[in-house]
## 1
Amino acid sequence: MARTYYVSLITSVTMSKEHNNKMNKIVSLAKRRGFIFQSSEIYGGLGSVYDYGPLGILLKNNIKQAWWKSMVQDNLDIVGLDAGILMHQKVWEASGHVASFSDPLVDCKRCKLRHRADKLLIAAGVEADDKMTIDEINDLLDKHNTVCPDCGGELTSARSFNLMLKTHLGPVESDESTVYLRPETAQGIYVNFKNVQQSMRKKLPFGIAQVGKAFRNEITTKQFIFRTREFTQMEMQYFVHPKYADKYYDIWKQKRMKWFLDYGISESNVRYHKHDKLAHYAKSAFDIEYNFPGGWDELEGLHNRGDFDLSQHEKYSGEDLQYTDSGTKEKYTPYIIETSVGLDRAVFAFLSDAYSTIEGGRGEGAKSDEEVVLRLHKTIAPIKVAILPLSKKPELQNLAHEIADILKRRWMIQYDETGSIGKRYRRQDEIGTPYCVTVDFDSLEDKAVTIRDRDTMKQERIAIDELVHYLQDNIC
Ligand code: ATP
């Protein structure tokens, strides 16, 4: 929920040429190869909403599954939840979102574009942050003669703009029927704390994990899927005795960083960022930042939230949300350690980290000035194997289809028989397919195929009977 430092408002001004170039290349690849499209594109697009194409949804699901496995499957003290997007309006009063989940907004009087005032100040080199009052922001805007970054026009004074998307439930539009599209998934976990703890007979410490959509009426966007108005969060809230909160906070800080590294993010592209000014709910806060094409920015938030959430919900609902230790009989309000990562930001980080180019190509027969290789971790790559018959002769097609039928039971595969073999390798490299299996005329005799590794380009001859074992050993 913290509205943190974000330097990329005036993308074209602040982003280095190199970063801008990379951003353009990733956006172009994402569209060209069916990963990510602008929402409602044929109508001119809907601002800051994106659609995941056939490969994008595979990549997104693989990342989600890798996260879920690392939380719910690998930890016996963590269980899952899927709460509704719509919740009782009091939830958002208790959480503080109705009163304070807002950004300072200014309008340009000339071009009518809207901007986040704190980001304008930061981009102009002024020391500003998301904890300042509207009056403080307006003083700074005046003092620094801040103008519209797009057209240089005069700006209105800043006013507070709540980011929650509002709608009404039922046939009557009234204050009572107001509901919000949740701006974070965490509250669904807090209000279900007792349900989950009691139904699963969990002793503290234990965690609840959830993946789901969240919505924010963001003012500042312009960064592809970095900041969107509809996005998916992967959150895990760990409930602990207050005296162990620091210990588990450290553990989860390390574990979450390791997760990114385990799935192939380069160590040089991630770092911790400590928050000195804390949001109202936090006792301590770190971000895991990633070196996005737009610069270093938050990928995941890690918070020690103290007892703020359960105490607030206890106060607003009148329900007892304390926990009684069955051994010591101590009754207390648990502290919460939160790990919260945006799935879309994770997709962006993994795509960006995996994106590599080879000037002049790798010399496998297809001519190109620059070859793209998406070096995605094999577990998250959308397509695991491509089956490539060397020619369109029916006997090769038949054998290739037989192999495809065997492999598709276990993995997402593609079958491609068009173009030169070099071109087909390029197409698979560009979407990050770790293995290509070529079926040639010798295959009809020796019942073997050639398997090519995306990264090393090493080619091995393997008996068709051994193929499943080989891939099982090499793809997790
Ligand atoms: P930011 O400062 O970038 O707006 P935040 O501090 O408001 O982010 P949190 O409320 O801590 O973010 O949300 C946790 C995570 O959810 C973030 O680390 C980010 O990965 C993701 N997230 C938040 N807002 C968005 C958004 N508008 N689009 C995509 N992902 C988002």
Note: Residues 1-4, 6, 184, 216, 218, 227-228, 231, 233, 298-301, 340-342, 344-345 surround adenosine-5'-triphosphate (CB under 6 Å).
## 2
Amino acid sequence: MHDFRYVGNQFHCEGVAVESLVQKFGTPLYVYSQRTLTRRFQELDRAMSPVDHLICFAVKSNSNQSVLRVLAKLGGGFDIVSGGELQRVIAAGGDPRRCVFAGVGKTEAEIEFALRRGVYSFNAESEPELQRIQRVAARLRRVAPVAVRVNPDVEAHTHAKITTGTYENKFGIAFEQVEAVYARASRLKNLRLRGLQMHIGSQITEVRPFEQAVRKVLPLARRLKERHGIEFFSIGGGLGIVYQPALASGAPVWWKAAGRNLLTPEKYAARLVPLLKPLGLRTLMEPGRFISGNAGILVTRVEYVKRTGRKNFVIVDAAMNDLIRPAFYEAYHEIIPLTRKRGAAISSDVVGPVCESGDFFCKDRNLPAVGEGDCLALLSAGAYGFVMASNYNTRPLAAEVLVHGRRAALVRERQPLKEIWAGERFAPWLK
Ligand code: LLP
């Protein structure tokens, strides 16, 4: 479930009409539902309750500090991929001791910072990285908790740009090599071998790839527990969400039709808990999209409607710099008007103002007829939306709002235009 729906003819986030937010904060505008975030976290938490576990929210999917604070207050941990993300988590009130640090390119400075802050584990992706962590830890006279990311070489059946668990990718250490790596790492005095980690990809909508990967890695985890006393096994993130709901009378119906085949926390847990429980290790998960994806929308205003010989172009004030997923992955985001429209649908392309043909949100999609000034919501934009935004075409970053019941708060102001070039300097010979 999520908390965006029409009440009468007006599209609402929880108890707030989204149109009222547009009037107050303008467009393009990201709007997040605290209730959806909370419910998604709790559903997964509950489903996994038969095993000792920790949900580490993937900060990369949505790093707004209010979003992080909501999850920190629920007792969540965090999956971070940079020193910057760790600083954000700390600033938001998150506990570094519940953070796992992933990524193939951790710098010395990032390792030092994370070590001083006491992260739960460095999820190392190569032997040179383990050696670097050892060096930094020795210099600081500390012991660094580490896990190795195992690449299980299983196919996740998702988009090529977001699959990570096969040998085609840069991630992790090959399954066959992992034990030897642990044996060598166990001789490095300033490392503590704390766990084993994997992550096979993103937007996975069936439980089978997760189950395959866990089944394959389980004996390895058992041996590492016996030989090296590891205490956790992280099964990564990747749980997929519904982007394309079934349409009933013009309004999206999320869980009735489209949701029937959805990967629910219950289905996920029903298959994985029986495998994980006998292992006797703490289970970590790193969901991003599952928690934040359906919890956010991007609201945009129609600037022009342009009919060419063949097409109906709806030109809006948001663009690929605000939400790059359609341009980058040809991702589908449901698009609906904030005020419900009756009448025949028109095949339309919704496009942004950026000077690229790739700047589109949908192509040849049947949408209600809209005109200048109407507002549209792009649904399921809470994950990998704002966080992937850029200033391309010198467009300021959008504002973000968090809704809680009938309350709404600006949780990031619209970027002032001048801030975009504030760090630029004239070369001395041009002064
Ligand atoms: N853990 C690791 C090690 C990861 O690399 C990722 C995502 C996650 C957890 C969280 O995955 P999730 O639960 O959100 O699927 N920008 C792309 C997605 C990139 C995912 C990168 N890694 C998109 O918009 O679809």
Note: The pocket of LLP is lined by residues 58, 61, 79, 102, 162, 199, 202-203, 236-239, 286-290, 325, 329, 383-384 (CB under 6 Å).
